[in-house]
Description:
By secondary structure, the protein is of the alpha/beta class. 40% of the residues lie in helices and 16% in strands. Helix 1 crosses helix 13 and helix 7 packs across helix 11. The longest helix is centred in the C-terminal third of the chain and has 24 residues.
Amino acid sequence: MKIAFYGSSLLSSWWNGAATYYRGLLRDLASRGYDISFYEPDAYQRQQHRDMEPPPWARSVVYPATAEGLRSVLAEARAADVVVKASGVGVFDDELLAGILDHASPHALKIFWDVDAAATLDEMRGDADHPVRRALDKLDLVLTYGGGPPVVEAYEGFGASRCVPVYNALDPVTHHPVEPDPRFAADLSFLGNRLPDREARVEEFFLTPAAELADRSFLIGGNGWESKGMPANVRHLGHVFTTEHNAFNCTPLAVLNVARDSMADIGFSPATRVFEATGAAACLVTDAWDGIEQFLKPGEEVLVARDGKDVADHVRSLTPEGARKIGDAALRRVLGEHTYRHRGAQVDVLLRKEMASRVEEVAA
């Protein structure tokens, strides 16, 4: 089957946290025989900050962020069996969604793949004329980055014929244990861009413990933090390319995951960082969220913190031996249950069943 996938970027993780999600899933689907074309706009300086060249397993099309560029790539949708519009492209999002509905072949599956379902649902609640809300009855399927039953129920309540979570996972080809790198030495590290619905939780779960543990070292990576006031024992790295993520995760005593406000409020969806860190056998400390037991066992495969005090207590009591034990247990768990091979198998079965149902309907 041919897939035309319209997303933010496959080639660059610059202000684009979904990059590793796209890469892991689409690489696996390609190994299952899918012919994939990925369309991304030349926007937000992502092409100037590539951390991957066009891969052999997908045809990469970078188009000008113009109306003409948009028309040129939408015209190619008609050749695909599966047409996907991802959320958060950042350029012509509404036009892309309308465009795949207009340009897809009548036999094609039309899918909206939401990589930030909590934010999209919040927008739809406040806008009865929201473009996604208007399109739901014309789409065959909504796939989401995660969210669990609350997100499924919300989407189907808005009129989606079917909503299925496809969670983040580990890509062991790109994220795995490596030798420590002194550049990333710290007692606790956090990696994430500075975003409005993340900042307060980073203050609570990272900066507050850092201020309390003045004799310990803390490291923060990601875009946007350079203007943020921080305790003296916090170092800021700026953007950390995906090629450096393994060393970033392997080196410190522990790595922190913090859910954004929106995902803390509705459903659950472990961030890519959860699997990148555990895939590198890091000792992960995460803020508490419903559903974590589905992915990692608290106390044995992950340390859970209800607030900044819990984070400080974990860092204070953690030993290198204890950190290694937790990290090794987490790596075994995610390799056994949560790789993109597992997610790709899920999507493959889903797409083939949907296409088979469509063929049966036409035959009837």
